[in-house]
């Protein structure tokens, strides 16, 4: 009888049991509790709570601003990651460290900083407002705040992939007469596209749940700059637990559906890349 390979790590049963317990306590049980609380409402009451005009305006701003911010981060985060990986220049380490700044900065401080920058008398606002660019207390302020907090997710997701790309493939393509644009479209883009989608999904998920930085820079004006997480807090302060739970359930379901679609697109892009190669 062949000897089994020695594995210094615990067995599958123990690790799987711990994993399921950990995920259940931190993820599954809270989500189940939210849905159980929601199910206590009748369908008519639930529908009335989640489709009131103020809630619909909050959904629109929350998901719309999160989508725009994630798209902006997907584009400019990819460019930033490319520059940090492919080029050597003075101050590179400083710029690379700045990428992690939104991670370390408390969201309330980020909101105060952005509002002081883009307010009418702020450092940037005094120049932008006369041009018609309102960077504070407008929907644009929400997009700016979400872009700020979501940038590191795209850059840090993409950097390892760019670092592991084989330069020899690009050199071979150049030797065969391919220009830089064709090399990027035919070789580099299919390779990094699934990772870009992953970074986009992470930035989007972070933006949907953001609260601290937005409440300071948006003004929280109902029907204009009020996001869904802030509306949940308002409902809780009014002891309207049913309304808060219903809105939270809608956010959760829509987020799960959108992230599921993004993950499917990521898998499809990876399979398309393998088939094309």
What is this structure, in a nutshell?
By secondary structure, the protein is an all-alpha fold.
List keywords for this structure.
globular; 277 residues; MetI-like fold; mainly alpha
Structure overview:
The chain is mainly α and 277 residues long. The chain has a single domain (41-276), classed as MetI-like (MetI-like fold, Orthogonal Bundle), CATH 1.10.3720. Helix content is 77%, strand content 0%. It has helices at 12-39, 43-50, 53-86, 92-99, 101-104, 107-118, 125-128, 139-163, 167-175, 180-208, 212-217, 228-237, 241-276. Helix 3 (53-86) packs parallel to helix 8. The protein is globular and about 70 Å long. The protein starts with 11 loop residues before the first helix and ends with a helix. The relative contact order is 0.13. The model has no long low-confidence stretch (mean pLDDT 84).
């Amino acid at each position: 009888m062949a000897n089994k390979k020695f594995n210094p790590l615990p067995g599958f049963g123990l690790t799987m049991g711990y994993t399921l317990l950990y995920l259940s306590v931190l993820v599954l049980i809270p989500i189940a509790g939210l849905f159980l609380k929601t199910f206590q409402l009748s369908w008519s009451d639930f529908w009335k709570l989640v489709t009131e005009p103020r809630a619909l305006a909050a959904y629109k701003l929350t998901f719309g601003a999160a989508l725009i911010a994630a798209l902006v981060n997907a584009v400019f985060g990819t460019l930033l990651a490319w520059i940090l990986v492919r080029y050597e220049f003075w101050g590179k380490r400083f710029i690379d460290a700045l990428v992690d700044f939104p991670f370390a900065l408390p969201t309330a401080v980020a909101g105060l900083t952005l509002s002081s920058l883009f307010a009418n008398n702020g450092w940037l606002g005094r120049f932008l407002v006369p041009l018609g660019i309102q960077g504070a207390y407008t929907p644009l302020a929400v997009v700016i705040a979400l872009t700020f907090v979501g940038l590191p997710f795209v850059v840090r997701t993409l950097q390892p992939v760019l670092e592991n790309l084989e330069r020899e493939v690009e050199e071979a393509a150049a030797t065969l007469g391919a220009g830089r644009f064709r090399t990027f479209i035919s070789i580099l883009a299919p390779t990094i596209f699934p990772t870009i989608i992953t970074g986009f999904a992470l930035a989007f998920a972070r933006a949907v749940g953001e609260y601290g930085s937005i409440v300071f820079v948006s003004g929280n004006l109902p029907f204009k700059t009020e996001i869904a997480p802030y509306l949940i807090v308002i409902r809780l302060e009014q002891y309207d637990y049913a309304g808060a739970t219903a809105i939270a359930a809608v956010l959760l379901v829509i987020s799960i559906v959108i992230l599921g679609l993004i993950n499917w697109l990521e898998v499809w892009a990876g399979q398309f890349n393998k088939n094309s190669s």
